[in-house]
Amino acid sequence: MLLDVALLVLVLAVLAAARYDLTFSVKNRPGVALAMGLSAAVYLVTYGLLVARRYRWASTDEMLGLGITALCLGASLSAASVLTDPSIVPLSVAVTIAPSAGSAWLVLRYAAVRIHRARQRRDRRGGRRAVVVGAGSGGQQAVAMMLQDSRAALHPVALVDDDPAKRHLGVLGVRVAGRIDDLDEVVRSTEAEIILFAIPSAPAATVERVVHVAAESGCELLVLPSFSEMLTSEGAPAGPGRRVGSQVELPRQAFRPVLLEDLLGRGSVETNTEAIASYLDGKTVLVTGAGGSIGSQLCREIAQYSPARLVMTDRDDSLLHAVQLSIDGQGALESRDLVLGDLRTPGFITDLITDIRPDVVFHAAAIKHLTLAERFPAEAFLTNVVATADLLRACVAADVDRFVNISTDKAADPRSVLGYTKRTTELLTATFGTTASDDARYMSVRFGNVLGSRGSALTTFAAQLAAGRPITITSPDMTRYFMTVHEACQLVLQAAVDGETGDGLVLDMGTAHNIEQLARRFAALQGFAEPRIVYTGARPGEKLAETTLAAGEPDERPFHPLISRVRIPVLPRDLLLDITELRTGVVTSGGVQLVRDWLRDAVGVVAPPPAPGVEDASTSLVGPTPGPTSGPTPGPASEAEDDATAHHAPDHHDRTAWTSHS
What we know:
The protein is of the alpha/beta class. The protein is built from 21 helices and 21 strands.
């Protein structure tokens, strides 16, 4: 402030001297001195009240405060010039003081910033030289973090960006040196050791280009995560392919290694946060399977929308502790919103729903491993079908406003016990939804594999690589859809905005990826040598290629470009009445064949013809398979299935008393 006052006095003296042809008569010296005192007082009061301690010095925000200060200064001197006789300073001086002083202050700040940045660059020259990909907000943030942090181990030497408007842009003294296609040449000319990717919303193809250049040049590739990723990943344990720490020491691990998600993801997902908040804010929300990959991420996403209560239930106490720790940072396990229990325990669901009276339910609890479901069909039936039916019945009785069943792409043209049971959950959700209140919404959301989830292919690959074993893959032709858990949960919340009772909302999974190529890229990103691949052949129930839409389901997207809407049929009443009887048979005698017969009747056929372009990798998927029907239950997580022969949903007001049975 004192430097600004000194500049102000100097500018006023120069303007006054110029007005009097560089000579002062004795008569005008007291007036100019009084004007200097008045100007200093106006500046100190105005700047002190409006700018000081509100805005950072030399920041963009401070510019507005300086402009207001200069206007107040000009107005005060002009009023003093008009109201005094003789005038303390000529009116021409009073009018020009505002732009003149303002310009002087800006020049002062510009010079100070340039000197400060030059000193920072000199101090950082001992760090590793980095080329930043992206000169937008992410790149500017990355350069600022490297230059302003005294502990930073990186020194930015250049930027690259494809935007022609940024061709001559400079960010804190670091210039744009070319396009992304010029990255290899820029790296060589600047002798860079690090390539820092700073476009959080970039498509996978762009990331792939940069990864290729980094591999060819021998540079280490780091990524600036998006702000939402920084928030949602805090407190979460490192998953496969997610290294804890980095060779570059920056506070809070600001830059991380490139992950498989970066190569397969599709950038940021646009959602209507206001619409999502409209059904979550101030409401009681229940998430089942809250300790699983999808359930835990849903909890973290929902918590940001300020629900009145977020009740999380799971039968795994360690997973409940982990999800609570990731949300509130405490993990004390004393909250009434943490409920430990098994949905299959008689009476548990009824007591839970009666106690908390939820407004919204996200049902993510399920057995999701295809092979285990195939070996233990009774367990899959009890968890995926019976527990879901019990939960739906209790929710209808409690007037739950919105029920979202988390399904799977295996529910589309199912070939496995897992697919059939999860397709049945879609049918059950549509069926019970017709008995709910007029404004209630009971829907299913269907999507495929989630990167890095528990038990996923990446988990298996990581364990095999770490143990020095070959990677096992079903077939060189096997493909799967993948999406990040954050992307999946964002789209689940968006789908629940517009979904109605009887809707199946199918998420756009992007492009199917070859599993062998995925495994090789994963190994390379983890720093392993070229892995050895062993082909195991298709297991019962396994397809070489999945599809998210069943044969006959149209790809209509009325609500969101990444969400398709299909109508789910309802189950015939006689099949619903069988569930309680079948549950008893399964519990008492194992009931493997009972389960298979019921699934055959519920979905219509054992193995319907595959959809066009879908290759079946097995010969018998719900036929007899060896293995016991009891024993440890595979852990719940999330997924689903489909059939065109089931009856279509009746009018919402035709409430056959299904809720009193099963």
